[in-house]
Amino acid sequence: MRIVITGATGGIGFAVAEHFARQSHQVVLADLLPDRIERCVEQLRQQGFAAEGSVLDVTDADAIARCARDFPADVLVNNAGIQHVARLEDFPAEKWRLLLEVMLTGPAMLSKAMLPGMQQRGFGRIINIGSIHALVASPFKSAYVAAKHGLIGFSKVVALENASHNITINTICPAYVKTPLVEQQIAAQAKEHGISEQEVIDNIMLAPMPQKAFIDVAEIAASAAFLCSDAARHITAQTLVLDGGWTAR
């Protein structure tokens, strides 16, 4: 199968790409920066894996069309994400719109571009990488929380629209994953709250989580692979939550 992953040079994206590559699938690393794409593709190829790169800005309609034309996906993993932490009254309007474009409109438009091919082949899997913040909220993250909440609703609708085509659409929602994006959040939250970064980790990020641990990128990659397996062929319109018990309370 051909697996197209957006945001593929980051922590979660590359872990997903490497996991699928190890299962002998062809992976396409779609991301913004050509140099990073080239390095990551070469890293996989040196291990004997089938990997290609695609320069993709998920806010660019032409780039989306080009990616869908050049790399029609059997499996699409919508993973690209960004973050900005601020009170709403201090949140730049253009930054707010950008977060929605990258994490909600982008996945919708890329899915739209890939779906006709999936429908024609009678098979497709779309996996949206959500977040614990698709289910709960935190202060200072209005755009991120809005985008991730919207992603779940979007996934459910498209799953219903494609139920007769052997196409499933699901959302994986992990609690905090120790990636560069989260490292940036730790620093931003420390500044916003006037506390240390360790206090952010202990008292904000991991406080609601009974297991008190960051989610490992390998867990997300394995979950994505499971959703593509025969065992998951009737799992669609669902939200797979990796939260260490957070939302049980």
Describe this structure in words.
- The protein has 249 residues and is α/β, with parallel strands linked by helices.
- It has one domain: Rossmann fold, CATH 3.40.50.720.
- It is 47% helix and 15% strand.
- The chain is built from eight helices and seven strands.
- Strands 3-2-1-4-5-6-7 form a seven-stranded parallel beta sheet, with helices on both faces.
- Helix 1 links the parallel strand 1 and strand 2.
- The termini are far apart.
Descriptive keywords:
about 250 residues, alpha/beta, Rossmann fold, seven-stranded parallel β-sheet, about 45% helix, NAD(P)-bd_dom_sf, 3-hydroxybutyrate dehydrogenase, EC 1.1.1.30
Number of helices: 8
Q: What's the mean pLDDT score?
A: 96
CATH architecture classification: 3-Layer(aba) Sandwich
State the helical fraction. 40-55%
**C-alpha-based Rg, rounded:** 18 Å
CATH superfamily: NAD(P)-binding Rossmann-like Domain
Summed up, the domain count is: 1
Q: Count the beta strands.
A: 7
Look at the helices and sheets and give the structural class: alpha/beta
Strand content: 15-25%
- CATH fold title: Rossmann fold
Gross morphology: globular
Strand order of the largest sheet: 3-2-1-4-5-6-7
At the first level of CATH, what is the class?
Alpha Beta
Keywords: Oxidoreductase
Protein name: 3-hydroxybutyrate dehydrogenase
EC number: 1.1.1.30
GO molecular function, one term: 3-hydroxybutyrate dehydrogenase activity
In short, what is this structure?
Helices cover 47% and strands 15% of the residues. The chain has 249 residues and is α/β, with parallel strands linked by helices.
